[in-house]
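Reviewer 2 asked us to include a model.

Predict the structure of this chain.
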Amino acid sequence: MLESLLINFFFLLLPVLIFLIFFENRSFIYNKLSIVLLSMISMVLCMKFPIQLEIGYIVDLRYIPFLIFALYTGYNNTFLLYIALNVCRFFISEEGFFQSFIFSTIIFAIAPLMHKWFINQEPKKRMIWAVIAANLTMIFYLLTLTAFLPELDREYWSMAIYTLFTYALVMGIITFLIETIHANREAREHIFQSERIEMMGNLAASVAHEIRNPLTVTSGFLQLLHQSETITKAERKYVEFSLLELNRAESIVSDFLTYSGPQSENMIYSNFEEETEYVKNIMIPYANMHNVRIQVSFQNKLKLRYDKNQIQQCFVNMYKNAIESMKEKGGTLTIDVSEGKKTVIIEISDTGTGMSHEEIAQLGRPYYSMKKEGTGLGMLMVYSTISKLNGKIKVVSEKGKGTTFIISIPASQAKK
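Predicted model (structure tokens):
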């Protein structure tokens, strides 16, 4: 029996190990397909080689990968496992297939409903609720099993206790590994992001000021040339194009300068209320141009030290991107500033075009932009500013429905 349990545990552990070795650094879509396939194989192997109890009952762990997918991904991917589970069950044995089909259908209908709530929980709570979901599933299974047994003898209760314990233990271990992998990936991405920001800061400090001086001189002479009456109409047009490009170069240099670090003369100790209101007011005309409504909710009393100008520019960049994502059909830009446990939480939501998981993964990278004329430095500046405050940015988005940026900044910094 112990040997069968270890083999089944290995079947469930196999997708995790293969994913870590071969697929962890692949694209999101490639990852998703590989995880679905590996989980199907794991589930089928658990059904093909069940745990033979000495008291005569058979137990398998097929519902562990099924429940994990239901809780972590929702209906779309779980449907593939639901089909694979029932097809495999039919070919293994037609006896009891109808009961198995009804039971799996009920689990498939109920478990994914918890997905959105489950995924927003803290990692420790997700592990606890995954174990609870596994045990509730098995309790339901054991209750349905009683309808087909003449009596509930000692062997049945031994099997019930063994099943509940095994499901709780294995589900706890697997979800712990999943959460650990997820936490390690986030930590690694945070380190990479910090290194990119540090690199851009060093580059900005050493180069930006030197570039701005010749740009200013060149722009001045071109403006004088533009006012001259001796140049032709075609030459004046060329000068206008040159001035536009110089202005764009000046804007890029200004973005670079924001990475050189907070300026002491701009440091304040506040709660973001003034910055939120100021940026809302200056962005209203731009929002009206694109038929976008701005809604602001401010409920925060926590304070921290920050560079006022950088926070204002951070909000401008995010509001501007959100408005531009809704410029075709209009919509609503919602800003909610609230407080958590010693944490300031800023949520910026739009009803725009939304982003894919791969596009979200690219945010904050130098020169990556979803706009044709964009440089990507605006979002890099946002990530840089929040990183300096030891904050985190979470992005929730769906194509065609909109995007929400959730910024969490610890407010435990004392006033200096």
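The chain has a mean pLDDT of 81. The beta strands are 51-52, 58-59, 267-270, 292-299, 304-307, 331-339, 343-350, 392-398, 402-410. We have added this to the supplementary material.
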